[in-house]
Amino acid sequence: MRNQFTAVFERDGKWYVGYCPEVPGANGQGKTIDECRANLAEAVKLILEDRREDGLRGVPADAIRDTVTIE
User: Fold this and answer.
1) Phi, psi of 4 (to 5 degrees)
2) Residue 12, Cα to own-chain centre: how many angstroms?
3) Would you tell me how many other CB atoms lie within 10 Å of the CB of residue 43?
4) What residues have CB less than 8 Å from 18, skipping those under 6 apart?
5) Which segments in the chain show pLDDT lower than 50?
6) pLDDT for res 1
7) How far apart are CA 27 and CA 62, in angstroms?
8) Residue 28 forms beta bridges with which residues?
9) How many helical (H) and strand (E) elements, i.e. helices and strands, does the chain have?
C-alpha cells in the first residue's frame, strides 16, 4: 500500500525539522532534508500502525474487515 502525505520542512539552526499536517504528532528531524524526510516517514508509519492497532481492539469477530482506496 502506498500513501502520500504532506511534509513541511523548516530550518532550525543546523537541523531540519519536519512535520506532517495530516498525521498529528508525526515529526522528524535531521541534519539534511533527506535524513529529516526519512525520520518523518518512519514517524508517520509508526503512528499509523499504532492507530490501526488501537482502532481494531474490540472489533467483533463477525465484523467484516475490508479496505477503502482513496485517490
Assistant:
1) -125, 135
2) 21
3) 19
4) 7, 8, 9, 10, 27, 28, 29, 30, 33, 36, 37, 39, 40
5) none
6) 57
7) 37
8) 18
9) 1, 3
Contact 37, 18 (CB under 8 A): yes
Distance CA 39, CA 29 (A): 6
**Residue linked to cell 524526510:** 37
Count of Cβ atoms closer than 10 Å to residue 17 Cβ = 17
Q: What is the pTM of this model?
A: 0.86
Residue with cell 531540519: 16
Name the one residue in this structure whose C-alpha cell is 532534508.
Answer: 33
Give the distance from CA 39 to its chain's centroid: 10
Which three three-digit cell numbers place residue 31? 541534519
Q: Indicate the Cα dihedral angle 23, 4, 39, 32, nearest 10°.
A: -120
3-state SS assignment for residue 12? strand
